[in-house]
Design a protein that fits this description.
28% of the residues lie in helices and 19% in strands. The chain is α/β, with parallel strands linked by helices. Strands 1-2-3-4-5 form a five-stranded parallel β-sheet. 20% of the residues are buried.
């Protein structure tokens, strides 16, 4: 069975038939998480932490705040966007040590994919 991952915002109407919910950390402020996720109880949730080139969209929200919000709201996954080296994931892993959340490394550039496959 195909799983559909739907990116939602505070303006997204209730969606049916999805297998996972995604919150984009470049746009989803932690204070909105609880209200946005209310219609999706029981569905796994991933919060993407924006990559360096996306961080200018949230001048007041740091990665730590997004991670803390994800854990406080019992989200299932943190997606680390635009991963370039293992250090990108290691930093998040260290911050999340002994906390109940899984980490997904998102390699999203052709340059990184080529380097990692050599």
């Amino acid at each position: 069975m195909t799983k559909i991952i739907a990116t939602i915002s505070k303006n997204t109407p209730k969606l049916e038939g999805i297998g996972m919910v995604r919150l984009n950390g470049a746009f989803a402020h932690p204070s909105h998480c609880k209200s946005m996720l209310k219609p999706y109880q029981g569905i796994p949730v991933i919060l993407d932490i924006p990559g360096e080139r996306k961080k200018h969209r949230h001048l007041t929200v740091r990665d730590e705040e997004l991670i803390d919000s994800a854990i406080d709201n019992h989200l299932d996954y943190i997606g680390v966007s635009y991963v370039e080296t293992h250090w990108d994931v290691d930093i998040v892993r260290a911050y999340c040590a002994n906390r109940p959340i899984k980490i997904i490394a998102k390699v999203e550039t052709k340059k990184r994919l080529i380097i990692w496959t050599l």
